[in-house]
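HUMAN: Mind making up another protein with tokenized structure?

ASSISTANT:
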Amino acid sequence: WTYAQINEQANQLAAYLAKHVKAKECYTDEAPRVGLFLRQSPEAIIAILATMKAGIAHVPLDFQRPASQLRHMIADTGLTLIVTDVDDRELAVNALKETSEYKNVTTVDFNEAVKGVDDQVVSSERVRADTLAYVIYSSGSTSKPKGIAIPHGQLLDTAGALSAVLGDDDKVTKDSHIGGYTVLGFDASLFDMLMAFKVGACLHIIPQETRFDPPLLKDFFRDKQISHVVLLPPVMEKLADLGESALQELSALKVICATGEAFSPALVDRWQGLLPHTLLINGYGPTEAVISAM
């Protein structure tokens, strides 16, 4: 996908959403919302950009969550429209069936939504710094998932913070290759997008079957010349288990931002011994801190 193709489809979907999702002059707690029931894919990234263009907050609905949690999230955010794809539309409908708002929620296939819609730029007047960008939910491991609302201004601040942390030799440029590891239901996936799209770098979405197979993941990083990536510490542990000779193939890897769980000093020492040229960033922090706490 080129940036031109992504922008064209994002404009088309933004125009569709602006027409079908009730829009208001939106302060943070009044923004219209749309659910995204999409796997990590170019379509998911386009859908996120479309919501941002339209001034509509997106609510990622993660496939890995129990149906009861998805129903809670749908009802809690008052969704009236969910964007999905033809392969997963039935899953989305099943997640809706037991919600009290079932009859008021429409599911639409991504390709249907952009079909026949002109590539038109939605007015940027819809979006201000305090306009809600997304609502993302906690894991719900100890109670009901809690929704955290993040406005556009804070998201832009996070993008700026990354640039401030990186030195000249480690900065993301248009020639960088970003590894898109994190699934849509976790806000770290936005970090991947911010790194790439801020400067026009190449974002490589890591296939599902590759993410959980350390040798395949290492080969993916090598073959795509991944320079920057956001990873969970347990994934870094498994990659480190491959040994020094395997990881020496990752000469292009400049920066790893560890997030999602605590980044232990022992793991830091291990990686510094294996790949001393790679900058390690501890990005672990609460969702309320906007993706990471750098």
User: Anything to note?
Assistant: Residues 23-28 have pLDDT under 50 and may be disordered. The two ends are 31 Å apart (CA to CA). The CA atoms of residues 176 and 201 lie 5 Å apart.
